């Protein structure tokens, strides 16, 4: 035992953290070199009270790991993590400086607060779940889009509870088979971790949400919830207008086609496809005016009109409206009308001369 005493004292004095021993009344009865150096720096050498307040958790017989603050001579605060080891009626206390850990935690809190302020005005709902799948961060837009209360979200629910409450609030599509609902959520999280999750939800209320999953560092995962109802409505309205415009064009007796300034066929009607035997919808690649010229030439033979039409489409000649007659084998004389339209496009209309162009007269009861 005497042989071990010297090495044990050397180990205690060489320890980089504070070690001291207190009796049953909390008086310091032994300390290591780091403790004595700190006491000397604070000019508290010879005191029997511990340098830092002893938390209640670190008491004789206790083994808790707690934090204590020590005010240095320059007024700065230094944080220590304390642990105690019972030694009969006394306790041996270890204090490890954790200033770097405290600063990192404070930086993390500041960063989270900065993110929260940054995302506060974002119209897209944001929900970030940590590696334990607890809600770690959300913005006010998430409350508006999910109809979940701020109290519920502030309680840091787990991911399963979060989506269960969304389902109960009818803010996500109702699953057809509830027994497989949890399995689907597990697949959803797995896809989000791989940056592969993106879905469009059509809600019973008529709203349309786009939800996207994105992986985050340290095993976290984020979900973005965006209300795209207006965008979907605009797209549907645009498609309806396109369909209506195409239906109007298809009802015309004249063959109508529109080419872009690059010579790409962008619009054609049913009469055009019927007259020239060309159906651009059946092709995967873009149809050019040069390719269509081959159909015109095959039907009506060579004519300088085809060259002039191509020149007008590509803008190599004056952008003025003009017309010319060509002979069609089935329709007879056909007049080609070439007219420039907006955006550098060119409309070509083929009108058979025998086509009816009269306008019906209005009756006496018609309203002007």
In short:
The protein is an alpha+beta fold. The chain has three domains: 6-97, Beta-Lactamase, CATH 3.30.450.20; 103-231, PAS domain (Beta-Lactamase, 2-Layer Sandwich), CATH 3.30.450.20; 252-352, PAS domain (Beta-Lactamase, 2-Layer Sandwich). Helices cover 36% and strands 26% of the residues.
Number of helices: 11
Q: How much of the sequence is in beta strands?
A: 25-35%
CATH fold assignment of the largest domain: Beta-Lactamase
Let me know the number of strands: 15
Strand order, largest beta sheet: 2-1-5-4-3
Q: Helical amount among residues, as a percent range? A: 25-40%
- What is the terminal-to-terminal distance? 120 Å
**Rg value:** 41 Å
Mean pLDDT: 82
* Whole-number tally of structural domains: 3
**Uncertain segments of ≥5 residues (pLDDT<50)?**
356-368
Report the CATH superfamily of the largest domain. Answer: PAS domain
Judged by helices, strands and strand pairing, the structural class is: alpha+beta
Describe it.
The protein is built from eleven helices and 15 strands. With 368 residues, it is of the alpha+beta class. It has three domains: 92 residues, Beta-Lactamase; 129 residues, 2-Layer Sandwich (Beta-Lactamase); 101 residues, Beta-Lactamase (2-Layer Sandwich). Strand 11 and strand 12 form a beta hairpin. Helix 10 packs antiparallel against helix 11. The relative contact order is 0.06.
């Amino acid at each position: 035992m005497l042989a071990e005493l010297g090495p044990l004292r050397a180990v205690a004095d060489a320890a980089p953290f504070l070690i001291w021993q207190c009796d049953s009344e909390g008086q310091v009865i032994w300390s290591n070199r780091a403790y004595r150096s700190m006491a000397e720096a604070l000019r508290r050498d010879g005191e029997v009270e511990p340098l830092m307040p002893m938390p209640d958790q670190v008491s004789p017989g206790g083994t808790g790991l707690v934090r204590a603050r020590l005010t240095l001579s320059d007024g700065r605060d230094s944080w220590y993590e304390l642990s105690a080891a019972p030694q009969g009626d006394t306790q041996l206390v270890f204090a490890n400086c954790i200033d770097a850990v405290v600063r990192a935690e404070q930086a993390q809190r500041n960063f989270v607060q900065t993110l929260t302020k940054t995302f506060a005005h974002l119209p897209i709902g944001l929900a970030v779940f940590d590696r334990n799948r607890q809600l770690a961060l959300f913005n006010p837009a998430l409350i508006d889009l999910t109809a979940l209360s701020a109290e519920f979200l502030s309680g840091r629910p787990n991911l399963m509870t979060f989506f269960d409450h969304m389902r109960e609030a009818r803010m996500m599509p109702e699953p057809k088979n509830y027994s497989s609902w949890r399995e689907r959520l597990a697949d959803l999280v797995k896809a989000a971790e791989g940056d592969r999750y993106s879905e469009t939800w059509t809600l019973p209320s008529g709203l349309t949400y786009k939800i996207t999953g994105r992986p985050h560092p340290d095993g976290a995962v984020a979900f973005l919830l965006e209300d795209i109802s207006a965008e979907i409505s605009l797209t549907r309205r645009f498609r309806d207008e396109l369909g209506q415009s195409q239906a109007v064009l298809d009802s015309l007796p004249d063959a109508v086609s529109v080419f872009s300034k690059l010579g790409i066929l962008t619009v054609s009607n049913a009469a055009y496809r019927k007259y020239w035997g060309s159906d651009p919808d059946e092709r995967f690649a873009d149809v050019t005016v040069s390719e269509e010229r081959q159909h015109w030439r095959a039907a009506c033979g060579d004519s300088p009109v085809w060259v002039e039409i191509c020149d007008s489409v590509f803008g190599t000649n004056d952008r003025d409206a003009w017309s010319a007659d060509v002979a069609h084998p089935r329709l007879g004389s056909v007049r080609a009308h070439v007219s420039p339209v907006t955006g550098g496009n060119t409309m070509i209309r083929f009108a058979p001369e025998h086509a009816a162009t009269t306008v019906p007269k209005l009756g006496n009861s018609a309203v002007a």
